[in-house]
Amino acid sequence: MFLKQILILEFQLVYNLRMESLLMGSIFAFSGATLLSYILIVLNIPYLIIPIVFLIAVVIARNLRRSNLNFRLPHFVRNDKALITIIVFTLGIIGQLAVIAPSGIHQNGDLVFWSAHGHDGTWHIALMEEMKKGYPFENPIFAEEKLTNYHFFSDILPSMVSRYIPLSNTDLYFRIFPLIYSIFLGGSVYFLTKKLTKNFNASIWAVIFTYFAGSFGYLIGKGESVFWATQIQSSSGNPPQIISNFLFLASIYYVLVFLDQKEKILQKKYFLISLIMLGTISAFKIYAGVILLGTLSIVGTWNLIFKRDFRLFLLSLVSGLVALVLYLPNSSNTGSFLIWEPWWYIRTMIVEPSRLNLIDWELRRQTYIYESNWKRVIWLEGWGFIIFFFGNLGMRFLGLWEFLKTNLIFKISIVISLVFPLLFLQKGVASNTAQFLQYFILLFGILAGIAVSKIPRPITYYLLPITFLLMVPTQVNLLKEFYSRPAFAKISSDELEALKFIKENTNESDIILTPPYNQYYDGKVVTPNIWDWFDTSYVSAFSSRRTYFDDYEQVDIMGYDYKPRLKIKEVIFNEKDPIKVKAALINTNSNLLYFPKDLKPQVELDKIGLILFYENSKVEVWKI
User: Fold this and answer.
1) What is 140-168 written as a DSSP string?
2) 132 and 152 in contact (C-beta within 8 Å)?
């Protein structure tokens, strides 16, 4: 019933012109509220968010009352366009929720996770808990180090809601906010397309391509990202990504509205709105900021030189300064994160066994290079690019003609989001720059929707069903893969009990030392314990305490030197000399030693001065 009511309200927005402002205004409010919450946290007065939200709610309620909106469903569904919109949005939102909402639920007392949510979800929940401790933020899984090189804005609002409203972190992260994000994504696509075309068919087809279109991976029996780009359907499992998707589109929407204004007071209004949207987007996802601010700088400079119009240049300049103010204090050595590695994605797409596995292709390329047969080299590289380009787009390639005709902001954004990952990788996890491709396929989805809407009606009856059938197999295969196997990982009820005890009986500044991840351990169960599955942030997430060092992959991405701490942990848990273990423990500056009994240290802990703090059938916790 809750989902039904949310969807009914959402889809009435589409057909009421006054409600367009409300939905796009809600996306702006999301960005503004995040910025406001961050400022309040930095000033150590986060509690002021309560009266501020109350006052805003009163103003919104008065405006809604004055607008005399009618939300009665029976009257609303008489409109055929409304019915189509309800169906498209409902299926699209359910499809996105289906790949995240089942995680973070209890089965037989255990907390279970599908896909990568046991890793990504616990990291974001750990950040939510860290933000409750105040500013400056420390890294919750690398204790006593400042949190740097991470776009944590996506976790600020969930953290504030968790702090002042009695909702669980798992419900907020895995269900409530993904629902909001999915609605915002569909709405931003619809209204941006409507702004561009003034056409319902184009808008609804753009939403269809956004929610359902996938890659052509299914044609060769592979998954959605065989050509490297993760598709929009699964972005709900990556909060910074899906947030940046709808903020990206909403920012373009507001920039276009700003440029349309003739009255100075409205220009100032939409300048400020655009400034906040553009200034904060880098803090949600740096890749989105690079593309959008880069694009607007280029277009703004063009307008300034050739049209004597300084508005967009000024907006991009000031927005860039705001972005730097938000980004630089929470970053370090950002220049060293990029690696110049042209064509890496295409080359690995071709040769990796999990992708195309065309070893002969690569051998021929190397032979042609050795023979200086550059025509053949260019021929192979060109075909590799064509496979990469069309494979990632899937049926969105129908937007190619519209790409040639679309506005300059769309064109430059698409070019940057495609070319950048073809030239650069990121240190830590090299393939992270593939996330640039999200905006490439996102914008092409809109262009494809516009293109399909222009197909003559007689052809439509035959072509559109075929288009839809070729579009959706990726989504179907994604759901099939997701639900065809048991949960990937679990936190046992005993561990949850131990982590709850720590949360309720220790100081929030305490540091927990955990066992090093052992990739060779195999518990030989269908759904492994989370510590057996991968190295994650689960101890910090569910104890609300910082850990000495966990989740080496995340720590490595952010640029921390984790190897000295890893060696210390290995000494503590693998060394049999109590003197060495005790010395290593002192070096950690930790307060608690936490471990599942299957990962128990080699020495007797009570003989080196540790005190048993908590114990159950699966877990021990010792005071250091």
Assistant:
1) TTSTTSB--S--GGGGHHHHHHHHHS---
2) no
Measured between its terminal Cα atoms, the distance across the chain in Å is: 50
Name the average pLDDT for the chain. 91
DSSP collapsed to 3 states, 566-624: HHHHHHHHHCCCHHHHHHHHHHHCCCEEEEEHHHCCCCCHHHHCCEEEEECCCEEEEEC
pLDDT in tens, 276-297: 999 999 999 999 999 999 999 9
Tell me the residue type at 419: V
Burial (Cβ within 10 Å: 0-12, 13-18, ≥19) of residue 195: middle
Rounded Cα–Cα distance for residues 566 and 284 (Å):
30
The pLDDT assigned to 13 comes to 45
Residue 298's alpha-carbon distances to 80, 294, 295, 412, in angstroms, are 42, 6, 5, 8
- Cβ-contact 433, 284 below 8 angstroms: no
Closest CA to 49 of 176, 164, 135, 129: 164
DSSP 135: S
> Poorest-confidence range of 153-167, 168-182, 218-232, 580-594?
218-232
Please report where in the chains the tokens 């019915």 appear, as a residue: 83
In sequence order, what DSSP letters do the residues of 470-531 get, joined into one string?
HHTHHHHHHHHHHHSS--SEEE-HHHHHHHHHHHHHS-TT-EEE-PPP-TT-----SS-BHH
- Residue 517, pLDDT above cutoff 90: yes
What span, in angstroms and rounded, lies between the C-alpha atoms of 284 and 184? 15
pTM of the model: 0.92
Specify the 3-state DSSP secondary structure of 238.
Answer: coil
pLDDT band for position 15 (cuts 50, 70, 90) = very low
Residue 549: what are its φ and ψ, rounded to 5°? Answer: -170, 120
Beta bridge partners of 146: 138
Helix 359-370 with 374-393: angle, nearest 10 deg? 150
- Pairing between β-strand 511-513 and β-strand 546-547 as defined by DSSP bridges: parallel
What single letter denotes the amino acid at residue 406?
T
- Altogether, the residues listed in the chain come to a count of 624
Phi and psi at residue 508, to the nearest 5°: -65, -15
